[in-house]
Amino acid sequence: MNKEKIIEKLTEIFDLELSGVIRYTHYSLMIFGHNRLPLVDFFKAQAVESLDHANLAGEHITGLGGHPPLNLTNIKETFKHDTREILAESLEHEKLAIKNYYDLLGLIGDSSVYLEEYARSMIGQEELHALEVEKMLKQD
Fold first, then answer.
1. Where are the domains of the chain?
2. How many other C-beta atoms are found inside a 10 Å radius of the C-beta of residue 71?
3. What secondary structure does DSSP assign to 74-132, as a single string?
4. Residues 134, 94: contact at Cβ < 8 Å?
5. What is the pLDDT of residues 17-30, one digit of tens each?
6. 3-state secondary structure at position 37
7. What's the pTM value of the predicted model, to 2 decimals?
């Protein structure tokens, strides 16, 4: 197992998940219109879940001897606050998370059942989120 590469990927995931906390909190504040209340609740729940995911990644980083970063590099404000645009940005964020967790799974290979189960679990959760957002983006 290449611990350095795994720590590096976990650090990217940690950064991505923490940026999700800020991103989803921001989105919850920028929703307007007739679907505001359920979408605000949805994005607030996503922010809480992103924090949980960041904590898990951080625990794995420190467990492998690494150091979780304090810098966030994945936050980009598009200033597009239409509900569909926010959902599309959210879907893009979810797809990036899925890619990073698949990358992590590839790095782990068959060297750690514990880390493999973690990566697979996170892939499943992120794929489910992406499916939900895709449903939200569908037109009637």
1. 3-137
2. 6
3. --------SHHHHHHHHHHHHHHHHHHHHHHHHHHTTS-HHHHHHHHHHHHHHHHHHHH
4. no
5. 999 999 999 999 99
6. helix
7. 0.92
